[in-house]
Amino acid sequence: MDRSSTSTRQRSIMIVSESDSFADVISKAFPTEENTKITTKNESFKAMNGHAVDLAFDHDVVIFEADPDNRTEVQAIETLLAHRADGTVFLAMTDNDVSIVKARQLREIGIDEVLPISIDSDGLRAVVEEQIGARRTPQKEFHDGPSAHGQLFVVGQSRGGAGATTVATNLAYSLANGPKSLFRKGEQSRVVLLDFDIQFGNSNVFLDLEDKGGFLQIIEANEEPDDHFLMSTLQTHPLGFDVLCAPTPVIPLQSVRPDLIENMLDLLRDRYDYIIVDLPRAIVDWVEPVLKRAASLILVTDISVPCVRQSRRLIDFYRETNVGLPIEVVVNRDRRPLIKSEHVREVENVLETRLNHWLPDNTKVARSAVDLGRPVVEMKPKSDLGKALINLGTALSTQTSAKKSKKT
Ligand SMILES: Nc1ncnc2c1ncn2[C@@H]1O[C@H](COP(=O)(O)OP(=O)(O)OP(=O)(O)O)[C@@H](O)[C@H]1O
Ligand SMILES: [Mg+2]
Questions:
Q1: What distance in angstroms lies between residue 310's CA and the mean position of ligand 2's atoms?
Q2: Would the CB of 333 count as within 6 Å of ligand 1?
Q3: Which of these, 36, 194, 367, 382, is most buried using a 10 Å CB contact count?
């Protein structure tokens, strides 16, 4: 087991800006007690001498202000990035009004992520964590993973009631309506939520939808659905995404064939930007094609010893099917600790991943959202749970869009 968890390492961040207030705001997002060393360079890239350039590459992350219209500065950044080794992440912060095209141009010169200046501290920290994690443990390409098509997020749970459906339904809303760190003003992503928890699935209840029998029709047809038939089985949610509800009657798990799932996912990947799957907890053969196509598996758990042990077993099982599968652990009903306890560090070691995503316990908000059949992020976006779920959507979409842009 690799015990060199990133949590115990010192991280270094260099802030490059001519503006003191920018450096001030960014450094406040990274509390020093969290093993972070901040260095500030009070100048532009254009003015940097060779020593300062070398210094930038000595850091894990360089965060800087970027104006895509400032040609000489963009040119200076491009020259610098052309000489970089793999280790350092470059994050640009730009005005909120920067167009998608200009943000993309910045990415094309090699900047790892382009973020709006309005991003909050939690969002910025999440992006930094993800980017450092991705650099330190480069993921293998999945042998059957998505290419230019939709990204498949698979949501699993370490125990019943862990919070998988809460995460899946809120993610569907967040991705469809554009997490705030993405440059998608006025543009919506096409999102479909598939409730594959065929025996106990209740995502329709979380979304105030009545199952119209689409999944049952697919299963009973007993042949691979064509595009037209498949689309007719989906239900459109008024909040801007489509849903395949779990069948209302309880049916045997084995009534779903792997080739049916395979065919279904391949058709949907051509139509949607994001496909979110609420997985059954049972291990069945038709889960394999889902895992093989997954861009990321989101495992919802708590950090009690039994759940951590079960999470470890599940991670091993999922990775047997897809060796390079990126796994994001979401700790539910717990606040992100300011300083990681011994227990949290041990959990990170056991799961061989950083615990980057935390959702606080908020029964009042969670319950009223379910009772009204509305996602928390839509109904109570300013609650602690709402904010944490928004940050989760932001982190996941930012991460996959970064991977996508690196591939193209
Ligand atoms: N952070 C939270 N704070 C308070 N309540 C929560 C939180 N997350 C989820 N819940 C509530 O816990 C219950 C179980 O959550 P959810 O249905 O999302 O879990 P699940 O893993 O999908 O469970 P199942 O085994 O039924 O599929 C729901 O009533 C939900 O509203
Ligand atoms: Mg569920």
A1: 17
A2: yes
A3: 194
Task: Say yes or no: 399 and 261 in one domain.
Answer: yes
What tens digit of pLDDT does each residue of 204-223 get?
A: 999 999 999 999 999 998 78
The answer, yes or no, to whether any atom of ligand 1 lies below 6 A from the CB of 158, is: no
- Give phi and psi for 353, each to the nearest 5: -155, 155
**Once rounded to an integer, what is the mean pLDDT over residues 219-248?**
92
* 293 or 134, higher pLDDT: 293
Find the CATH number of the domain harbouring 331: 3.40.50.300
The two three-digit tokens of residue 281, written as one number: 């907890």
Is position 93 within any domain?
A: yes
**53 and 161 share one domain:** no
Helices (H), 181-304: 203-206, 214-221, 227-233, 258-269, 288-293
335 lines ligand 1 (CB under 6 A): no
Q: Are residues 352 and 229 in the same domain?
A: yes
For 308-330, b/e burial (b = at least 16 CB within 10 A) is bebbbebbeebeeebeebbbbbb
Structurally, the chain folds into a number of domains equal to 2
204 lines ligand 1 (CB under 6 A): no
The beta strands (E) that lie in 280-343 are given as 296-301, 327-332
Q: What local confidence, expressed as pLDDT, does residue 144 receive?
A: 38
Whether the full predicted model's pTM is greater than 0.70, yes or no, is no
pLDDT digits (tens, 9 = 90+) for 322-354: 888 999 999 999 999 988 899 999 999 999 999
Task: Report pLDDT digits (tens) over 100-131.
Answer: 778 878 888 888 888 888 888 888 888 888 77
pLDDT digits (tens, 9 = 90+) for 240-268: 999 999 999 999 999 999 999 999 999 99
Strand 235-237 vs strand 241-244: parallel, antiparallel, or unpaired? antiparallel
Backbone angle region of 216, left / alpha / beta, with phi > 0 → left and psi within -120 to 50 → alpha: alpha
Distance 232 CA to ligand 1 centre (A): 29
Q: Whose CA is nearest to atom 30 of ligand 1?
A: 366
Kindly state whether residues 57 and 184 are assigned to the same domain. no
198 CB near ligand 1 (under 6 Å): no
Question: Is residue 374 in contact with ligand 1, taking CB distance under 6 Å?
Answer: no
Q: Closest ligand 1 atom to the C-alpha of 166?
A: 18
